[in-house]
């Protein structure tokens, strides 16, 4: 510490700012006055040999004493101060990657070193959200070429942990996304592990969708496993489905996604780097990509799909990955449930071979599992899809899935909400299209994924003949207020289902 006048006592604010470190200081704080801090200043906080760059929020009433600095949850855990700790707080030095960021904003190609500096500053929280938004915007569309995409992927891998596994073939599967439901991952993992493959699957939680794979899996088993626990599960059962945030794989990706999603900007290069950096960090050698294509999916045309496929292949080749891409139907949701518990119920129905199991989820899961088995054939497997179907129909995949759940901490049967409202067809006709994005919004307004039992249960699909009064879908909620929000949105958007 340089002097007492530049130090403040650290306290915990108890405010969740997600991945953004924030510090709260009173406007009459002597450090604020002497340093000339204003709201949203970037400040460096040094305490007990640790340093963190945070965004300043200024408190103008008496909720905060003038001699303390209150840290958001993310900042508190990053510094991990002891009781009564003090910190020196100064203006933060400009990030080393500032020149690289400006170069990309003005359309220049970034070198591998420049990309590495940007990613490292991202992980170290040295870039503000405004700077991150500028980077995301500068890379939007096709503004990253293949060389830059490879450099970004490598930088993202190097900035986090990497896992090493024994065995020649470590398989993984990822869906590019954009479809509500589409909970094929637990099914593919169960089939692949039952076939004897090693499939250590790390999955994400939802950010703007009604459920991520980790949210759905968490309904049935714990997913918040650290690296050692994850390795024990995989050693025992050959596969897992855990939350990737616990093992810190490609941490820059999680930060960029946080900024990218609200902007609703698609970047082919960042998409490919996001997916493959996590696969490489997780130790995968063979990767299957599910690429849904549809007018309201993430990839909206075959032209876009072709461009993304070429970028995936170029990047995978640079890292020695064996890659297969399955271009699939993205015109409507997959399965009937949208929301954690409803999607978990779909998964279990398919695994158990229930007569009411959604056929499209079963078929897509078999297609993807078969493609994965063809990519890395286990002994005695002549046809991937035939082998996958046999494992599913015999119950071997179900038994393996339950064993994985037990190894992760115990299997739990999903429960469904009792607060249900049926949305009915207003006129007779044929369902010609479903707006995936608006239907996902309905499930979110109903409370998903925070409310696990909330969401949407589909009754009709594209191509079905309907009569006025038929049920289109059921709304599930855990509170009357969220049910009312969802119903209001449905009433205001009668074109979620195109019926003619």
Notes on the protein architecture:
- Keywords: Glycosyltransferase, Transferase.
- Its EC number is 2.4.2.4.
- This is Putative thymidine phosphorylase.
- It comes from Noviluteimonas lactosilytica.
- Belongs to the thymidine/pyrimidine-nucleoside phosphorylase family. Type 2 subfamily.
- This protein has 500 residues and is of the alpha/beta class.
- The chain folds into 3 domains: 88 residues, Barwin-like endoglucanases (Beta Barrel); 208 residues, Nucleoside phosphorylase/phosphoribosyltransferase catalytic domain (Pyrimidine Nucleoside Phosphorylase, Chain A, domain 2), CATH 3.40.1030.10; 81 residues, Pyrimidine nucleoside phosphorylase-like, C-terminal domain (Aldehyde Oxidoreductase, domain 3), CATH 3.90.1170.
- Helices cover 41% and strands 20% of the residues.
- The protein is built from 18 helices and 18 strands.
- The strands form 5 sheets. Strands 1-5-2-4-3-6 form a 6-stranded mixed barrel.
- Helix 12 links the parallel strand 10 and strand 11.
- Helix 6 crosses helix 12 and helix 14 crosses helix 15.
- It starts with 6 loop residues before the first strand and ends with a strand.
Report the β-strand fraction as a percent range.
15-25%
What proportion of the residues is helical, as a percent range? 40-55%
- Shape field: globular
For the record, the CATH class of the largest domain is Alpha Beta
Side-by-side strand order of the widest sheet? 1-5-2-4-3-6
Query: Which CATH architecture of the largest domain is right?
Result: 3-Layer(aba) Sandwich
* The named CATH superfamily of the largest domain: Nucleoside phosphorylase/phosphoribosyltransferase catalytic domain
Tell me the distance between the termini.
Answer: 72 Å
Content-based structural category: alpha/beta
Which stretches of 5+ consecutive residues score pLDDT under 50? none
The helix tally amounts to: 18
Q: What is the CATH topology descriptor of the largest domain?
A: Pyrimidine Nucleoside Phosphorylase, Chain A, domain 2
From the alpha-carbon coordinates, what is the Rg to the nearest angstrom?
24 Å
The total count of strands amounts to 18
Number of domains: 3
Averaged pLDDT, please? 94
User: How many strands, which pairing sense, and closed or not: the largest β-sheet?
Assistant: 6 strands, mixed, barrel
């Amino acid at each position: 510490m340089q002097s007492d006048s530049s130090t403040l006592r650290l306290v915990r604010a108890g405010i969740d700012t997600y991945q953004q470190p924030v510090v709260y200081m009173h406007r009459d704080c002597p450090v604020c006055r002497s340093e000339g801090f204003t709201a949203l200043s970037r400040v460096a906080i040094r305490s007990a040999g640790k340093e963190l760059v945070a965004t300043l929020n200024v408190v103008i009433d008496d909720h905060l004493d003038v001699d303390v600095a209150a840290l958001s949850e993310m900042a508190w855990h990053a510094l991990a101060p002891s009781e009564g700790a003090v910190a020196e707080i100064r203006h933060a030095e400009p990030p080393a990657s500032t020149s690289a960021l400006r170069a990309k904003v003005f359309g220049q190609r970034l070198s591998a070193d420049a990309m590495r500096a940007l990613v490292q500053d991202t992980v170290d929280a040295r870039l503000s959200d405004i700077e991150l938004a500028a980077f995301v915007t500068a890379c939007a569309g096709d503004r990253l070429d293949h060389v830059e995409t490879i450099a970004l992927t490598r930088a993202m891998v190097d900035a986090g942990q990497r896992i090493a596994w024994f065995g020649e073939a470590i398989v993984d599967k990822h869906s590019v996304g954009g479809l509500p439901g589409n909970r094929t991952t637990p099914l593919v993992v169960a089939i692949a592990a039952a076939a004897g493959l090693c499939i250590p699957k790390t999955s994400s939680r939802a950010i703007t969708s009604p459920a991520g794979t980790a949210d759905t899996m968490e309904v049935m088993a714990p997913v918040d496993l650290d690296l050692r626990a994850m390795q024990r599960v995989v050693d025992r059962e050959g596969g897992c489905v855990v939350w990737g945030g616990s093992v810190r794989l490609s941490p820059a990706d999680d930060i960029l996604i946080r900024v990218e999603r609200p902007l609703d900007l698609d970047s082919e290069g960042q998409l490919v780097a996001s997916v493959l950096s996590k696969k490489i960090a997780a130790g995968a050698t063979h990767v299957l990509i599910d690429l849904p294509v549809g007018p309201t999916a993430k990839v909206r045309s075959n032209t876009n799909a072709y461009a993304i496929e070429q970028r995936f292949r170029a990047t995978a080749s640079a890292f020695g990955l064996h890659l297969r891409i399955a271009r699939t139907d993205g015109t409507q949701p997959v399965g009937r449930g949208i929301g954690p518990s409803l999607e978990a119920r779909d998964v279990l129905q398919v695994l158990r071979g229930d007569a009411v199991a959604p056929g499209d989820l079963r078929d897509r899961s078999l297609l993807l599992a078969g493609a994965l088995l063809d990519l890395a054939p286990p002994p005695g497997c002549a046809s991937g899809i035939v082998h996958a179907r046999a494992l599913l129909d015999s119950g071997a995949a179900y038994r393996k899935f339950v064993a994985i759940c037990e190894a992760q901490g115990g299997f739990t049967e999903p429960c469904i909400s009792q607060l249900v409202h049926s949305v009915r067809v207003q006129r007779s006709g044929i369902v010609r299209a479903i707006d995936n994005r608006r239907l996902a919004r309905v499930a979110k307004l109903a409370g998903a994924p925070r409310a696990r039992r909330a969401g949407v249960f589909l009754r009709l699909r594209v191509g079905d003949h309907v009569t006025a009064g038929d049920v289109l879908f059921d709304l599930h909620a855990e509170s009357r207020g969220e049910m009312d929000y969802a119903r209001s949105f449905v009433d205001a958007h009668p074109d979620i289902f195109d019926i003619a």
